[in-house]
Amino acid sequence: MGKKPRLRFDEIGYWSEVKLDIVKKYAAAYSRILAAQESPRLYHVYVDAFAGAGVHISKVTGDFVLGSPLNALNIRPPFREFHYVDIDPSKVAYLQQLVGDRSDVHIHPGDCNSILLEEVFPQIKWEDYCRGLCLLDPYGLTLNWKVIQTAGKMGSIEIFLNFPVADMNRNVFWRNPEGVDPADIERMTCFWGDESWRKVAYTVERGLFGSLEQKTENWVIAQAFRDRLHKVAGFVHVPDPIPMRNTKNAIVYYLFFAAQKPVAEEIVEDIFNKHRTWGAQ
Is the entire prediction scored with pTM above 0.90? Predict the structure, then answer.
């Protein structure tokens, strides 16, 4: 009989704690607004596609920090239903232990790219007066664009999205693109949705010794992805993402938000603006 996989809690930096605070504040406002709506009465759902174990360890203090799944469970007025997905069996088991046998919480072990499309999103239909807030915080480039685009086209789902630019720079956006592992190129294309990222990530500069490819600035790549969220995925409101930085002030990822309602953008921009000046600690 095989050994059970050993659980290793994720250690998170300051920037991740900021992200958790941003999502928690917006989720509270979202739940308050939707719970108060009477005509029509809406059924609102919280979805976490990379839920993890439910708790993390802070690199700053060494203490346990509540993750987004537990933060969401503590929001009042409550969401009507919760869907948590993770591919790591040990994390799924620990999260299930924390949650217990609550009938409003559904934990899905496996790959969120298929589980969201086949099991979760079909339950959040506009015509059924169901709405959803979905956190897409992937472990690097492990998210498929189809998930993002489906959420946008459905019109009933708002998303927070971790755009992992550090992973992209480390594994894909090399000075010599020909040396990049084909598997990493495939991951990038699946995340972006097509190969248009190549034209965004590199510019061609002409010099005395011929043409050279130069890697584009991070913010240019982020803005191009913002355009895709709006024009391709169909989200009407996509505010400027907030950059999350490490202790060396380098951008680790951009936190995007995308929705269909102007009030959602207004609330998120207010929350983003309050956190933009925090800086690295």
Answer: yes
